[in-house]
Every structure is written in C-alpha cells, then in structure tokens.
Amino acid sequence: MKISKLVGERTKEVPSGVIAKSHEYLLRAGYIKQVCNGVFSLLPPALRVQKKLEKIIREEMDKIGGQEVLFPVLMPKELWEESGRYSSIGSEMFRLKDRADHDMVLGMTHEEASVHMVRNIIKSYDQLPFMIYQIQTKLRDEPRARAGLIRVREFIMKDAYSFHTNKEDLDNYYEIVKQAYFNIYKRMGMKNVVSVKSDSGMMGGKIADEFMLITDIGEDSLVVCDNCDYSANMEVAEAILDTYESKEEPTELINTGENKTIEDVCNLLKIEPNQTCKAVCYYLSKSKKYVIAFIRGDLEVNEIKLRNLLKEEVVAISIDHPKIVAGYIGPKDFNEEDIITLYDISLKGAKNLVVGANAEPFHIAHFSFERDYIPETFVDISKVKEGQKCKKCGCGHVKIVRGIEIGNIFQLGNKYTSSMHMTVHDSNGEEINPIMGCYGIGIGRCLASIVEESSDEKGIIWPIAVAPWQIYLCPLRLDDENVAKSTEEINKLLEESGYEVLFDDRNVSAGSKFADSELMGIPIRIVVSPRSLQNNEVEITLRKTGEKIMCKKGELIKKLEELVKILG
Amino acid sequence: MKISKLVGERTKEVPSGVIAKSHEYLLRAGYIKQVCNGVFSLLPPALRVQKKLEKIIREEMDKIGGQEVLFPVLMPKELWEESGRYSSIGSEMFRLKDRADHDMVLGMTHEEASVHMVRNIIKSYDQLPFMIYQIQTKLRDEPRARAGLIRVREFIMKDAYSFHTNKEDLDNYYEIVKQAYFNIYKRMGMKNVVSVKSDSGMMGGKIADEFMLITDIGEDSLVVCDNCDYSANMEVAEAILDTYESKEEPTELINTGENKTIEDVCNLLKIEPNQTCKAVCYYLSKSKKYVIAFIRGDLEVNEIKLRNLLKEEVVAISIDHPKIVAGYIGPKDFNEEDIITLYDISLKGAKNLVVGANAEPFHIAHFSFERDYIPETFVDISKVKEGQKCKKCGCGHVKIVRGIEIGNIFQLGNKYTSSMHMTVHDSNGEEINPIMGCYGIGIGRCLASIVEESSDEKGIIWPIAVAPWQIYLCPLRLDDENVAKSTEEINKLLEESGYEVLFDDRNVSAGSKFADSELMGIPIRIVVSPRSLQNNEVEITLRKTGEKIMCKKGELIKKLEELVKILG
C-alpha cells in the first residue's frame, strides 16, 4: 500500500477535549473519524487492525467448538417481550417503529435471538452442549459515550452463547471460555489483563467475570491483592475487615448540636470515623419503601451489593419521614412497614461506637452492638477499602486500580430458556430447560485498549500480530534512481514474502516520514537511503524499543524473520 | 464438523407460503431462520457460505485498488440533511430518536458517510482517484419483503464509493468495476448474469447499471435481444417500434356509445389496438398538474420514463377535470395551465387511427398525426414490447425475461460532493467537487440467487467455491469397526489436506444421510461402507451430476484434486 493513496490524514494537532491516549492517537494517525456522539467511521488502517482482532477471536472461538452464526440487528418487540427485557431494559436500548408501526429494537445483546434460533431445532440432551457466536454490529444508547472507541454507541462485538444440560457442564465450559479469552488477549498483545468476579447486571445470571485491562484511563475500579492473584470488580469485591479493639463502657447521651455528619461529629468528639456507626438512606421506588443502611463510619455502602441483596434498584436520598430523625438516626427497631433496616457486617461485635440517638440534637457514645442493640442479621453491603487484608490469601493487602472492561462472561442459568420455553429431553426423557452461558468481547474497545497499553509520547506501538502493516518502508530521496529502484525491489520482495508493507512514497522530509511511522505505530521501519545503499544496506528500526539495525539487503528477509519472532 | 453437533435441522416438509426455491431449501436445509418479516438469522452453514462470498468480493475489490473501511449503521439526521435525502427518502429509511431525542437514521446506503469520511482529508487532485468500500449490515424498510433472502429488510451488503477529478476517469473506473463484478459473480459460480442499463432512482446520478441473474423467480423485467448482447432494465429499455402501413382516409366522427376503453372500442369497430391512440392520465401532486399521455393503443406507458421526463413523481389516476371528457380524450391543444399533454413517439407519422373526439359519446376514425394534429414534440414514454426489433443490432428481436438484481453500479456525478461541500484542488489550483461512483452488492441476495440458479428437486447444488463444506463424509454402518476406523482416518486426511468436511456421524439410515447431503447441497459426497472397504475403496458421488466414482482409499486425495478442478 502506497501511503500517497492511503485514505487518511496524519496530524500533529491534539484534538480538543480528548483525554484518552487511544482517542488522540487513533484520530491523529488517521484511524477513526467521529460521525456523531459515540459513533465512528473506521478508516482503512483501523479496519485492517479490526480484521486481525476478529481473526484471532474467530480462531479461538472455533478451537473451543464455537459455530459462527449471524443474528439480526433489527428485532421485533415480541422477541424481547418473551424474556421480559422489553420492559426491564431502559433507555440504553434503541427502539423504533417500522413502516407498519410495529415496535422494533436494535440489538445490544442477543440472548433472545440465540434462544429463538435454536429452541425448535435442538430437542435432545445429546445435541448439547454447543456454543454459537457471532461477530456483529451492536447498538447501545450509552448515556456517556467517551474516550473515542472506549465507550461508544455503535460497536462490533463478538458475542457467544452456550447451552448445557447441567450446571457442572456449564461450569466446565465456562472455564474453557475463560482460558480462550486469556489466549485472545495474549495474542492481541495485551499484557495487564485480569479477570474479576463481577455483578451480572441486566444479564440475569449469578456467576459473572469481567476481563479487565489495568490502565489509568479505565473507568472501572478493581480490587487486586498485592500478594496473591485475587482480583474483583469493586462492585462485588470482598476483603477482611479491620477491627478495632475497644473496652466496653456505659452508654452516654451527648448533645451534638447541629453536627450531623460523621465528619462533624468526629471533629466535635475528637474520634476517628471507625469509632462511629452511620446511617445511609435509600428509597426503593418500585416497592415504595425506605432503606436505612447502618455501616461503620469509615466505610462506604456498595450500592450494587445493596441492589443485589434487595433485588431492586436503590436510589440514595435525603430522608424525609415522620418516624425518622434525619441526621441523628441510630440503631433500633423502627417497626414501620415502609422502613427496612440493614446492618453491615462491619458492625458485628463493634463496641464503643458513637451512633445517632434518634432524637434531635443527640448522639449516643459508647454504644455496643450485641449489648445495646441486637439486629436480626448482619449483611455485607460495604465497599472494600484500600489496605484491607485480602480474603483469599489472608496476608496480602488489597489495592484499588483502574481497568477497562475488555470482555465479560456470564452464567445465565435458565432465565432465557425458561421464559422463552426452550426445552430438551434429558437422558430420562424428561423435558428440561437448558442452562446457558454468554460471552462477549467488544472489538473496537479492544483495539483502543491495545493502544492505551501500547503507546508512547510519539504515538501508537502496535503489537506485531495486530498491526495494520508490519513494515513501514521508508525511502529517503526517492529522486535518487538507486533508492527508487532498490525500494521497489525491496517492496516486491517483502510482499512476496507475505509481509504487509506501507510504502511511504511521498516527497516529504525524513522527519515527517519518521513521525508518521511512529504516530501510526508500525512495528518495523525499513529506511532505504543513498548512504545506506553505499554499503548495500538498509536501516531497520523497531518502533517498540527504538533499536536500529543495519542489515545487508540480501539478508533482509532472514533478519525480519528473526525480528518478527522476537516482537511476536 | 460433525453433523450431530451442527446447529440446525433438516426437514422434509415444505414450509407454507414459500414460493422461491432458495427460500424453501435454505429453510429446509437449516441455513436460515426467520425472526420477523424480512429479517433472518443465519445458521452456521449459511454463515460459512456468506464468509466465502465476502472473501471473493474483498479480493476483487482489493484487486482494483479498493480500501476497506467501515461506516456506522447509526447516523445522525444532520448528515442526511446535508445531501437533502433526509426529506427526499421516504418510509424505506428506518428513523429513530436517541435518548437525547436526537433524530437518527439507520444506514440503507452510505454516500453521505463516505463523503463525510474523506471530505476534510482528501485535499488535492493527486490524491484521486481512490475507492473505499465496506461490507456491513444495511437496514431498509422494504414494503414487500419476500422470497426469503431475496428481498429483506436487513442484509449484509458490500458498498463501494469512488472519487474522481473528471468524468473520463470515472468512466474508465466504472468499466473496471463492471468487469470486477462479472469476475465476482463468475467466482461465486453464477452463470446467467447480465448487466443492464437502469434507472438510477434515488441515487441521483445518470448512468447506472444493474447486474441481473436471469431466473424465473426474479422480480425485475429485463429486455434482452435474441441476437446481440443488448440487455436493459424494462424501466429504461428501448427497441425499434414496429410500424403499420396504412393509407390516409378522411376523418369520420363515430358514436361509440358507452365504449370507452381501447378493448371495447376495438371490439366494436373490429380493429386492432395498434390502430388506435389512447390517452393515459396521471397527476403530479407536487406541481398539482394533470398529465395526459397519448400513446398507441397496443403499447403501455413506462412510468419510470415518464417520471424521469417530468422530473417528478407521477400517479396514475381516473381523471376528473371540467375541460376533459374522460373516456373520449383525443389529441388537441387543451390550453389549460394545469394540463400537460405528451405524445409518445409511437404516434409519430401514425395514420388512420381511432382517437377520442373529446366529446361524449364520440371517437374519430381515420385520424392521422401531422395531418389532423401536429404535437409540438414526440417523446419516448413507452414500454418495450416482446418481439420488437433490437435497437442495438437492428436485426434481432427483443424478449422479456425475469431477473434478480444481484448488484448495481451508479455514476453519481457531484450530487453529494457538491451538496456536502467536498472540494479538492485540481492541477490548476482551482477548487472542484470530485465526482463519484458507487457500487453495491447484496451478499445475502447473492447467496439466495446462487441457490435459485443452482438447485434441483432434491435441494441445493453449491458451486464448490462457495459451498459451506466441500465434502460430505458419509460412513454407512458406523458400528462396523473397520468403517469407523477408516472414516476417522479419511476425515483426518481430508482436513489435513485442507478440505472442509461435514462428517455425518449419525446413526440413521443411508437414505436419510443421502437426502440430507443432497438437500444441503454439498458438492462431493464420500461414502465409506463395509462393502466398499472390502475392495479398499470409497464411493464418491458428485452432487451436480449424480456421477458415482469408486476410488481406492490411497488415491482419494489425488482424485479429489481432479474433481475439484472440474467442479471449479
């Protein structure tokens, strides 16, 4: 490919409002162009990378028995009503009407379509397990599209669906897919990838893992152990709670005046937040109830844990209820139908706390759970805090890092097969609902994530397996007949040897050519110049290390073979 | 691939309401499943075929310098307002609102997106010509989805856009693409493909060709010559008008009573329709005018020609106008601002016609144009009739055949670059709007068209280049140890030799296996049976011809190489 004919432009200017490196470089190096908020066109170099990512994914999916299919983007309302998700999914799903005024949706995921495809053709247990997958455009009306290809409203995704007769079979296959995912990311050249237990959100299952590339631009918080391989999404992470030894003393009513927040009360009484119990209030709009979540004052409520516990969306509120003294709420039985109280496990056995006295303007000091109040049960609704001990190894300490979600896998159970009436005969002839797993990878996000991890101040550094071209062929002084002839020969030789070559045939300065090759991230640059040709040599530069190697023309292919091995 | 694990079912029952062979076989052989009107899921065998079609298209597009890109499915209203098509395209475009209440459209074609991609990055004439293409999901709200994958609302399409500095360059490239299209269809195994001049419809250009597979299920009427290579879409076809010799006689007013139609008048007067002049009435709702189209009584008005002539949509009507005597309309100057009269070229020099007398209940006989009335001009608004002489060779006769449109190419001129303000500097430094060509192929429709052309009463007959699997490996009596062992060996050998094998590992009758292999259309079947193995042989059957060949196991790969060459 001659760069003079390549559709795309490379620019030095950093586009305004761009915060992610991948966003900046993909724009500046002519890979992507924004069409509207969260929607991009891919230019030829980006499509070349994407095709390589797709190929890696296809190969790994085929290796674990996947069968590629294609579901539609456009689906009728009725299909989504069967699973109940037409109403349970909100405005992130694009909806429209066709010319006959039928309600349609655009596919953001394809559980319904996958069950629809197989439910009448798979009839017996011996046809299971199987896995079908597709690579296809997805549309999702993200409220906050951001960072170029990291979070968009239209994207190409690989999504896969597996069907099993029993949990054990799904568990086995789930681990196989997990390994395939790690293989995929490795082949794509990503290094800092971890899988974390996660919340399954709207997918409806219980077991779920997210694959995270650890990087500062990530929008997810991950909890990782500094000693063992424990990692989890903040939403579901657990750690060992630090406890505070304290002797019991008699309770004491204290007038705390206008001091209502933990911070103010601590300042007033000269105590630490971990010596307090705070009350955080929520509202359940569906069941129209209030929730008072009691938790140790130094901890935060994890709203995802709360939602999963209550099986309902929760909204944090400033409470206004005749039986509740806002700012001074303390542990007690409220005995009201519309009030639910929850006690976090951080309060179990806690002694000598300052708690609200349920009367204005008072707090109680030296309050001890189990002595002064015994809740029915304690529940885990707290966020992990950096520095807590790891629950898995018991000796490491957890830290919180940022990650980009580059894939996820879910165990769905029979949510879809049951609601959509898919049954197969088991080995006893009984009808059962198969259980499902589903497995997604956003390909555009992978492309951008690779750039986040593999780039420097000059631009992108593509891993050689996914580079749009492996070689940037860069003649200096193309007006020199010898350079022109040699470059053409080398180009031909390289292409015949199966290399993908971006040939910089422009009449611009060496500096411009080098800058473009670095910005675009091509792994190997070969410079052909009058000077190097005097020794019958070319100069090879590796994008990743900057290493320069002089190489005899006749030994070029041999040398490249070596280099590709090292870079791979 | 073991057929016991293949997702999909083969059935004998012909689904109700299915008229096209491709629709029937693709359903019955487990290739497709309908999700809703005009929307299908593709099962694994269909996707395998589709990937092969895509590969052929990619290779041929790359060969002629195409650069693959990807435009979005989801586009903002504003992009389509720039070209004016947001309002000019009707209900075939899907429209929706996003969560911020912005108007969006779903891509049915991507001229706007292609200009958007390149307009700020291509700045100079020496960056032209270039061609970008994509293979992607398109959505089009067809009023009449039909015949399985032949006419659908969601489909994968290759669409390409080329940009040129001048008409000559576009003309040259247009012919190159045309040849590439013929190469594509040939490689896909389609035989009866012609290109026909066509109307460019909403695309906005002047020169347009459609590629048609000639087949009875086709929904388009094509005019082809039985002597030369002339072929054209009915919409724009021309032919030499047959003329009728007749001596002039004096006009005569005839009371034709209630006989108003050509048929009734001909019956009454015992004359042929070609001895009459009829008036066909239309309404132009935009300019609010009536059109009276006079044409020889045996011919039909071609409404596409009429629309192109008047540059406005036309609607056939039963006319109700104070100055018009419906049923008795004849040639004259109406001298009304809201009446346009048109005279077809079939009337030029016509003599001795029966025409309406513009008075009830009268017709005029022996009416001669140029003697009794001289229109300002004659225009070509008639449909070609089977048997007319070919205008191209002058000696052949045209016939009308049915065809499926399997691709189209258009010269767009500067409609989009001008309305969307894309300019480049020409060699004199002047700013010009590049001119464009666009080139489409519907891939799903190609898949179905191949089946239409290549199938028999037993099922599909895939051309080997696009078959989902080349070989159907069909052991009989897998319980026989020798058969099982030999089949496994052969399977391994075939896969190592690069063949794609569908292995029928089921415990069903030979008849069922043969029927499935024929229905699915796999080109080569290899039967391994206890009997054939006695001679150390296998039986090869060619799907296309039914030919059976006994082949020594050791010579199988050599034999297959020969067969693939013949079948290819």
Give a short overview:
The structure is a homodimer of 568-residue chains. With 568 residues, chain A is α+β, with helices and mostly antiparallel strands.
What features would you highlight for this structure?
homodimer, 568 residues, alpha+beta, BirA Bifunctional Protein, domain 2, YbaK protein, Rossmann fold, 5-stranded mixed beta sheet, globular
Describe, in plain words, how this protein is organized in 3D.
2 copies of one chain form a homodimer. By secondary structure, chain A is of the alpha+beta class. Chain A folds into 3 domains: 48-71 and 108-237 and 400-452, BirA Bifunctional Protein, domain 2 (2-Layer Sandwich); 252-367, YbaK protein; 469-567, Anticodon-binding domain (Rossmann fold), CATH 3.40.50. Chain A contains 14 helices and 30 strands. In chain A, strands 3, 7, 8, 9, 10, 11, 12, 20 and 23 form a 9-stranded mixed beta sheet that branches. A 5-stranded mixed beta sheet of chain A has the order 27-26-28-29-30, with helices on both faces. In chain A, strands 16-14-15-17 form a 4-stranded mixed beta sheet, with no helix packed on it. In chain A, α1 (21-28) packs across α10 (443-453) and α2 (44-63) runs antiparallel to α6 (167-187). The radius of gyration of chain A is 30 Å and the shape is globular.
CATH topology of the largest domain in chain A: BirA Bifunctional Protein, domain 2
Distance between the termini of chain A: 23 Å
- Rg of chain A, rounded, reads 30 Å
| Strand-residue proportion of chain A | 25-35%
Structurally, the number of domains of chain A stands at 3
